[in-house]
Amino acid sequence: MKFTCLSKGGGFHFPPCHMLNVSGFRVLFDCPLDLSALTIFAPIPTDSRTIGDEESSDFAIRESVDTEAGVRKRQKIEKPIDANCLIYAQPWYKTVNNLHLWNVSFIDVVLISSPMGMLGLPYLTRNKDFSAKIYVTEAAARLGQLMMEDLVSMHMEYRQFYGPEESSVPQWMKSEEFELLPSALRKMVLGKDGTELGGWMPLYSAAHLKDCMTKVKKLRYAEETCYNGTLVIKAISSGLEIGACNWMINSPKRNIAYVSGSIFDSGHAMDFDYHALQGSDMIIYSDFSTLLTTEDNEQSTSSDDNNNWEELTKSLSNNDESSEEREKLAFICSCAIDSVKSGGSVLIPIDQIGVLLQLLEQISIFLKSSGLEIPIYIISSVAEELLAYTNIIPEWLCKQRQEKLFSGESLFAHVELIKEKKIHVFPAVHSPKLLINWQEPCVVFCPHWSLRLGPAVHLLRRWCRDPNSLLVLEDETDADIALLPFKPMSMKLGNALVKLQKVKPLLKTLQPKSVLFPEDLGNRVSFTNINSFSVSHYSENETLRIPSLKESSELEIATDLASQLHWSNLKQRNLNITRLKGELLIDQGKHRLLSGNEQDGSSQNKPILHWGSPDPENLLAALSKMGINGHVEQSMTDAESDEACIVHVQDPNKALIEVTATGTIISAADEDLASRIFEAIVNVLEGI
Amino acid sequence: MAIECLVLGAGQEIGKSCVVVTINGKRIMFDCGMHMGYQDRRRYPDFSLISKSRDFDNSLDCIVITHFHLDHVGALPYFTEVCGYRGPIYMTYPTKALAPLMLEDYRKVMIDQRGEEEQFTSAHIAECMKKVIAVDLKQTVQVDKELQIRAYYAGHVLGAAMFYAKVGDAAMVYTGDYNMTPDRHLGAAQIDRLQLDLLITESTYAGTIRDSKYAREREFLKAVHNCVAGGGKVLIPTFALGRAQELSILLDDYWERMNLKVPIYFSAGLTIQANMYYKMLISWTSQKVKETYATHNAFDFKNVRNFDRSLIDAPGPCVLFATPGMISGGFSLEVFKRWAPFEMNLVTLPGYCVAGTIGHKLMSGKPAKIDLDKDTQIDVRCQIHQLSFSPHTDAKGIMDLVKFLSPKHVILVHGEKPKMATLKERIQSELGIQCYHPANKESVSIPSSHFVKAGASNAFIRSCLNPNFKFSKSSLEEKSDSGSQGIKSVPWMQISDERVSEGILVLEKSKKAKIVHQDELLHMLKKQKHEVQFAYCCPVHIEKVEKTETTDLIPTTDELSVPDKSSLIKPLLEKLSSELSEAKIHDFGEHLQLESFHVSICLKDNCPYRITDSLQNKSKAAFFCCSWSAADEKLAWRIISIMENCNLTAN
């Protein structure tokens, strides 16, 4: 087994990406996009700035640099970056660079763990050499598709502005151009070690996306699917997002659990199902978001194995993950109320579906309890469908939401709020309906968290100078660079949700034989105390080889076949052996030997393989038992093997037996005699 | 190992489905239904057969409910709350959501209308449902370490599922009720090709083959339309869930198309509430309905509204859905009493009514009067329309499913005895599968499959996967299209790749059985291979056609001169090829080979393997040294006999 971490990713929107080689199959985990890198581009210029302007200003910058000469270049970098440093061009998108080093035609399976993990998938599927089987949960596939459709539609705005893309490499990708970028931006373009320029790609088209979705095989949670008869693959809920999952891969030699970002107690998605990860030989731990604290670990190790489940359950039941999340939500809501009370509007460019859905509910409650009649707008090309979809998927939601189904209530409050016209859903900022209904102050939910795409750009421009308005950012947004184009800002800032996760004694409880652990996290968690499992550390772009655990695979023999076996006993070693013949069937990761079609019982009993060496005396005795008589002549001519001897048979007919250490040759003129001699020899040998 | 199947209900009848299966020591109850036709204790399965001591927690590992119909779930609250079963109960999400509505509705009918003693209360239903674990389709649920269950789409009602259960190597499927053809709001049953020891299938329509549903749907719409056009009232007695929604979709759609304004009512608020569930569970409907969720959820009926009791005698036409389905009491009976005496009105009846209900009486010939009880008699003058579409599979569907799954055994339940017997015969004769149709309280025991586990070495697995190509020449007589060349013999090569899995199973004391490749065995034993071979130096007659002068000069020689050596191989090859036409003889110039049989010219004066000196005319003989291994004994002696009895012509 080989494991290569292609990217550690970065946070919720950019999950990690790995390549696993198991049982001869290459499995790719996730194919994300690093959308945080979008911030190097300037948002779509406002009407006042024409393309001509943009070009000349771009030219101006370049010229000024030229005159300032190379020596002073560094000094320029030290200057604080401003909006003019951003790239004024149609954005490209940053894929996982290391993935491009692999030949796509060699990938056998792609496993997508979350909607975010599939945003880069159309780049793979549009490649004509790509032929891997892609597995995604049904809900993740639907949400991922909506996110990608939204991405494509938001990007259209740029395309309309800058015109169709030039076929050649864009200006900003040329080395003389990006050399001039401030170091912070340059790092985003090239990556830490300066190698990531090749990861940038122009956005895929709607057609590529559509085609991509047809190639996806959709699964339910805990649905078993079998790849090539060998790998049994199962998606297990991870709690991170609706449809997000960890993976169980059962191969004939080992059972692997792939654990990425997981949340024990989610407010919307089905919780992390850690019970289902039991029985895995190896856990690939890939949750980089976890804030690990070692104290928790120490406490749990004292307990003995039997109590582990109980302890884990206990530690989960009194966990404050969700309460902390609720507090955060409540805080944002109260900030929002303050803003609207003072006449400002609230802009919430958040794309985490769970946060969006919960904030919608919470803010409505807060507004109601404050007696405020403030409209809530949701502006996105896919919002209507997204909201409708979230209300028809009880199977993918957390316990509390499922209870709503059983008591006949809507799964999320937005269903009623839309009916009551408290929430208004529009596809775009320029929708006629929006223009008629628009009312300020208001609360707006819209994409995109990078502040470079979608309605958020326009609304932020509108409100950035208003000190009463509030902008709620995702904590992953790098506010310094993201807000550059909107400076000077008078708007208030709020941060949504730092997901705090306590480390759980999870690994110890699951009792795998081995664990693959990220090196960076490894330093923060000590596994020194009595481990029942071995730990290997992996780091980005390094291939880890893991030796096989089992020497042999499990094989199941059909009862009818097993009952027909003819056992022979080898006395000196206390062994029973038998020849086994059948048809091997590999299905569902299991090797099964079934009785074959051919029926030749006669040959089955006859040994084919012999070992040992016949002692001349014994041989003569065995021969005489069969009525064959002869005498031994010790061969003198054969010097190399001193045990060689020849038996001359006279009676009943002339025959010759030549015995050496490694073989016997029978020579007789008639068939009957030859086969009788053969029988006699086999009797003094051991064989099967 | 055996699978033990105890039928507690729906054995040779329809009603109170309940089968308890013991599979490798695990005991599962499939469905826990009640019988609508009985009012006494016969309405529930005889649970005492499960455990004499009524210790159900220890005698059952889990209960699986296939769908929300009362004949499948009706006895569940009684079993959990009154009998005290506390183990796990599994059903799909829609069943868990909808079953309490059915149970509550039934309970009300029992108490309010019939004034019966309460078997279970509302609280019982709520408590019972709390114990239910909801499952998704295809989700593999590990009930405990050994027992695994999985639901498959059955298409009978919303959330109906067939259940797969597996313990060790033994596996089975219990279908519940299912439908093999998609209908207006549900898809067709869907299941994987599984390896099964046992299939327990419903057989409601064991003797019926049905054609397309659309004609009958049109018939229904026409009957309803005619009635309301004539100012009549249409009573559609249905259960709250399932049929009501299916017919509503049908009517709502028809009303839109025909621009009808006649009101469609749902009785007692219950069904409107049910629509709410249907909206959230739309992903369990058919593909077509499912796709409507974003724009207009198909269960948002435009023309349907709530019914008020005061509307019963209101003038003007209307359509009313009322519960319960078979007019066994409740609101549908109340409305029936008022509407039945008028000719312009219409009552539709479901495809199946349990004996003892009014629905059943109406179905069995149209009576003019129905005796409700001693004092009440109803004049029946209204029209009766029987809905002939039913969400059950027909006989063809059952046969298709059985054929598709090809289980080792089939048990038929949920059907009528004579039809089941016919179907059983068909399954046994047409598909060659052992089939049973036990009556209630009977038990069937069938053997289950079991595999012996062993470790397999890598070399063994690899050797099994090695291609094993066999080439055989054939000639195919082919008529050429042009006809000018007539029949042409085209030689063609047949290639087969039958992989042989052959190894050696080693059983060492106190160790796990292991399968190794035979080469590995010797290594394990630290022994050397000892090859036993046969050898024979075979004399062959030679006729020399062209006698050259040189041979005359050496007349007494036994052996042929060197230049003749290879020249004798060719004629031998020809000879053997003609005699053994089917075999492929390899010509290596110096020697020939067929399987392990190996022949070359022997030039030794005194070959040790030259056993016979029986040959008379040595001058006309050549010797061929042959060797072979035991496996080709028969073949070798056949070749030798050919060689000994032939005359080779040396050039």
From TrEMBL, chain A:
Subcellular localization, as worded in the UniProt entry: Cytoplasm; Nucleus
GO cellular component: cytoplasm; integrator complex
Gene3D superfamilies xrefs: 3.40.50.10890, Ribonuclease Z/Hydroxyacylglutathione hydrolase-like
Cross-referenced InterPro entries: Beta_Casp, Integrator_9su, Metallo-B-lactamas, RibonucZ/Hydroxyglut_hydro
Biological process annotations from GO: snRNA 3'-end processing
Pfam families xref list: Beta-Casp, Lactamase_B_6
Region (Disordered): 296-321
Keywords: Cytoplasm, Nucleus
Biased composition (Polar residues): 296-320
SUPFAM superfamilies from the UniProt entry: Metallo-hydrolase/oxidoreductase (SSF56281)
Major localization listed first in the record, in broad terms: cytoplasm
Superkingdom classification of source: Eukaryota
Chain ranges of the Beta-Casp domain: 356-481
Family statement: Belongs to the metallo-beta-lactamase superfamily. RNA-metabolizing metallo-beta-lactamase-like family. INTS9 subfamily.
Protein name as it appears in the record: Beta-Casp domain-containing protein
TrEMBL record, chain B:
Gene3D superfamilies to which the protein is assigned, alphabetical: 3.40.50.10890, Ribonuclease Z/Hydroxyacylglutathione hydrolase-like
UniProt keywords, alphabetically: Hydrolase, Nucleus
Gene Ontology biological process terms in this record: snRNA processing
Chief localization: nucleus
This protein's record includes keyword Hydrolase: yes
Compartment(s): Nucleus
Cellular component terms per the entry's GO annotation: nucleus
Pfam families the UniProt entry points to: Beta-Casp, Lactamase_B_6, RMMBL
Domain Beta-Casp: 244-362
GO molecular function: hydrolase activity; RNA endonuclease activity
Domain Metallo-beta-lactamase span(s) in chain numbering: 15-232
Sequence similarity: Belongs to the metallo-beta-lactamase superfamily. RNA-metabolizing metallo-beta-lactamase-like family. INTS11 subfamily.
Name of this chain's protein: Metallo-beta-lactamase domain-containing protein
Organism of this sequence: Acer yangbiense
